[in-house]
Write the structure tokens for this entry.
Amino acid sequence: MCGIVGYVGKSEGVETLLEALSRLEYRGYDSAGVAVLNNKGLDVRKRAGKLQGLIDDLRRHPLHGTLSIGHTRWATHGEPSELNAHPHTDCTGQLAVVHNGIIENYSELKDQLLAKGHRFRSQTDTEVIVHLIEELAKHQPLERAFISALKQLRGSYALCLLSSAEPQRLFGARHGSPLIVGIGKAEAFFASDVPAILGRASSVIYLNDGDVVDLTSSGPRVMDLSGKRLRRSPKEIHWDLAAARKEGCAHFMLKEIHEQPLAIAQTLANRLSVAKHSISFDRRTQSFLNKISQQERLIIIACGTAYHAGLVGEYMLEEVAHLPVDVDLASEFRYRGPLLDARTTVVAITQSGETADTLAGIRMAKEQGASVLAICNVMGSSIAREADAVLYTHAGPEIAVASTKAYTAQLTALALISLYLAHKRQRLLGTRFRQMIEGLSALPKLIEKTLASEAEIKMVAAKYVKCRNFYFLGRRYNYPSALEGALKLKEICPLIHAEGYAAGEMKHGPISLIRMGWPVVFLAPQASVYDKIISNIEEVRARKGECIVIASEGNNTIARYAESLITIPKTEEFFSPIVAAIPLQLFAYHIAQANQCDIDQPPNLAKSVTVE
Ligand code: M6R
């Protein structure tokens, strides 16, 4: 939510910002703006709506200058409009601020500033920050005024400040919302996320909460809120620029769906050895997992798709490792008053590592003595840094709002952990353990094979393009697959209502809605619950419902139950949600594409939900 960029260097600032902002579009936004310093002072340009509107405007009427800040805004306080878009300026027009987060005490600060004669133009919480700095800078140097202002803010922020009185530097600060510093050749950046600075910065500093930065083209000076200098070591950026580009694909989502064999292989790399039939992790994670193996209870917390991965994790861990697991939506977990202590391990699953509820959940868990393992994709993210141990999924940057490769990488990570713990706890040994290791190592190839049926899946999707209601039903390991299939479809195709259900729950309510034109997608791979699913299919057919069935290849009898059949390679039930994810993603993608939906940036959604 909200994307921030700041640039200090010798290149044209606006060009640099626009490229960076376009790489942050995936975060979700509804307006955009830039501010640049030139010999006339501060020039600001903002537009409501898509970034392209701002780009077109700036092509027609360019703004020149190097020192600059830019922003994509996801509205919280005040409607998405040009006036409310960032950057916001002070009364004199000499200071400009971009902000991600929420200032909780903004109305109290605003009253004080209004009383002192400040004039406000927007309805945002952000505008108070720039007026507050203006007020404080009347009596002290800008850096001190910036820090004094930060001390008065309550809530969360990632901030960037540009002042016409300081033409060589930007100031930045982080508290509860992500902000990084990118270091390039005689240029430096602030950004919300690494994709923004790929190709320009070679290393990155992940700022901590409480960090304040004075940024010049030779790099950052990081300090705390008392002005004390802090050491922050830059980390080399490993992601490739190609990861932030569509590379010929129509959408990032499609590109990322096809990247899954690689994403899964990267999750397994250096952890799974088929030759030795073993699983291992880096020292810290492995010793953490060894500790968990003695633990009495695990609680998985996550949101959205990552929560669905957690539900699959529950089946995996309980079945093979015999560890009791609860799975909670992070937004519920943090408020329901869970009973936690040192015997509990909380596993937080998150692609971005910045989801506000998941972050608050792990903080609460740690305060109550529980230990925390993160399964995370983004290196250096808040959750990765605050957890006691991290298992990175290494899926590469996921740009589309709809999670695809991060999901299957999360499932793969959960499979690795489950099998490791099962072996450690002596629940899975000998031939069976070796078979499961081989099953895990076969996944990238199996996913490649599944992706090869895209044309067949697209043909099935074409039959249902006009339908506006769907159910997705599954059982056991594929109950979460049903939830995920429905989420994928409604998320990228907002014209459609889709609901995922445990197939056994149908008779307890939803079956009343079954009728012609209301297709039901059944997850029916070869599994222990296969016969039960067939009974559920019969029940739907008896009510004239149309069944789209996802089944294992080689199943010659199922076609008679299905209006449409999609086959997936045979696999152990344990791995089936990973394989089944592919047709569900492609089905959603092709329905959304035929309906001309904005697939990569669905309305109202943000990639990383940094406010609760
Ligand atoms: O970054 P996270 O994995 O913590 O994000 C959690 C959810 O916001 C995310 O999975 C969301 O549901 C996806 N857009 C679904 O595709």
